[in-house]
Design goal:
With 373 residues, the protein is α/β, with parallel strands linked by helices. It has 2 domains: 5-268, Carbamate kinase, CATH 3.40.1160; 277-369, Archaeosine Trna-guanine Transglycosylase, Chain: A, domain 4. The chain is built from 15 helices and 18 strands. It has helices at 5-8, 18-21, 29-44, 56-60, 71-94, 107-111, 113-128, 151-161, 198-201, 216-228, 243-248, 266-272, 285-294, 335-341, 349-353, and strands at 11-16, 22-23, 26-27, 48-53, 99-105, 131-137, 166-171, 176-177, 189-190, 233-237, 255-257, 280-283, 298-299, 303-307, 315-319, 325-330, 360-362, 367-369. The strands form 5 sheets. It has a 7-stranded mixed beta sheet with strand order 5-6-4-1-7-10-11, with helices on both faces. Strands 14-12-15-16-18 form a 5-stranded mixed beta sheet, sandwiched between helices. Strands 2-3 form a two-stranded antiparallel sheet. The radius of gyration is 22 Å and the shape is globular. The two termini are 29 Å apart. Catalyzes the transfer of a phosphate group to glutamate to form L-glutamate 5-phosphate. One of its GO terms (cellular component) is cytosol. It is found in: Cytoplasm.
Length: 373
């Protein structure tokens, strides 16, 4: 029999959604303190904890005349509410003997290899000190280009980056259901999902919850990324009293997504989980086959189209002629240089660019293959 995921996990990332923490006029202190007590109990059992918490805008609600609507208003509300959210967690977790540290991130922070490594080193040091990092997206400076989309995606990237033993997502949703239970009350919960297939995605609604950006579709996308990275994910009902203790005791709750064997580490794991590639290379069928089946590097002769603008060394998507993702890799050339050498044999690169350069546009050692769909 498979051990209870919470029993086995020594490093735990817990994501708490806005709808879980929100009350009628801002944060619900009773629920927040109840969750903090559960987290403190898990920490007392020797676990390392990382908390990814939404709720900054909800925390600002009591200070606003009306709900924020525009991007500028949402960013201002996040700036107003983030200190309140952090203060609430600091107080609640502090009562359980836990120290906390605030970490604000954007997708841009994790899209650049050096900043990714710095973020990981900081989080590892905090955990070594016995501190609970409390992470949120840096909404105050977000744009569509640098946002994760919602904290479900941020949580799975953090769990992957830290090689967590388990990602727990506490949501207002009880579980994944056959159909949206808000539309069909007879829909049954799915307790375990072995793979996030198109059929599983079809069960989900992309309608967001009452106070958050991410619906069930977002959670399934996060689960697929977590499983791919070798991190199991457990979606649990965050509003349920003593939910973590009850799940740990074996009560049938939520939906569990077991991990696959981890295929990559280091740079290639970063590439596989990259939130924001900077551009795209369209390759011909022969190049796509060589990458997928033979583990070869991508040569200029196989490139058919260049989409976007980037500098040499940037992460890019590689897609086949039908638009299917082949993988992600670091491009040895700037986008304009690839346009000049695309479709040409490697021997012509010095002639076309006026300088010597690598034979490979993307070397296989810096390429993460997308799992076959």
């Amino acid at each position: 029999m498979e051990p209870n995921p919470l029993h086995a996990a020594r490093r735990l990332v817990v994501k708490v959604g806005s709808a879980v923490l929100s009350g009628t006029g801002g944060l619900d202190p009773t629920r927040l303190h109840a969750l903090a007590r559960e987290l403190a109990r898990l920490a007392s059992e020797g676990r390392e904890l990382v908390l990814v918490s939404s709720g900054a805008i909800a925390a600002a609600t009591p200070q606003l005349a009306r709900p924020p609507r525009t991007l500028a208003e949402l960013q201002a509300a996040a700036a107003l509410g983030q200190p309140e959210l952090m203060r609430a967690w600091q107080q609640a977790l502090g009562e359980g003997g836990l120290r906390t540290a605030q970490v604000l991130l954007t997708a841009d922070d994790l899209s650049e290899r050096g900043r990714y490594a710095n973020a990981r080193a900081t989080l590892e040091r905090l955990l070594a000190w016995g501190v609970v990092p409390v992470i949120n997206e840096n909404d105050t400076v977000m744009t569509e280009e640098i946002r994760f989309g919602d904290n479900d995606q941020l949580a799975v990237l953090v769990a992957s980056m830290l090689a967590a033993d388990l990602l727990v997502v506490l949501s207002e949703a009880d579980a994944l259901y056959e159909r949206d239970p808000r539309e069909d009350p007879r829909a049954r919960p799915i307790r375990r999902v072995e793979a996030v297939t198109p059929e599983v995605m079809a069960m989900a609604s992309d309608r967001p919850g009452s106070a958050g950006r991410g619906g069930m579709r977002s959670k399934l996308l996060a689960a697929a990324k977590a499983m791919e990275a070798g991190v199991p994910m457990w979606l649990l009902p965050g509003r349920l009293e003593r939910v973590l203790a009850r799940a740990q005791a074996g009560e049938a709750l939520g939906t569990f997504f077991p991990a696959r064997a981890r295929r990559y580490g280091g740079e290639r794991l970063w590439l596989a989980q990259l939130p924001r590639p900077v551009g795209e290379l369209v390759v011909d069928e022969g190049a796509a086959r060589a990458l997928r089946e033979d583990g070869r590097s991508l040569l200029a002769v196989g490139v058919r189209e260049v989409r976007g603008h980037w500098e040499a060394g940037s992460p890019v998507r590689v897609v086949d002629p039908g638009g299917e993702l082949v993988g992600l890799g670091l491009c040895n050339y700037a986008a304009d240089e690839v346009r000049r050498i695309a479709g040409q044999p490697s021997g012509r690169i010095p002639e076309l660019l006026g300088r010597e350069g690598p034979a490979e546009v993307v070397h296989r050692n810096h390429f993460a293959l997308a799992r076959d769909r």
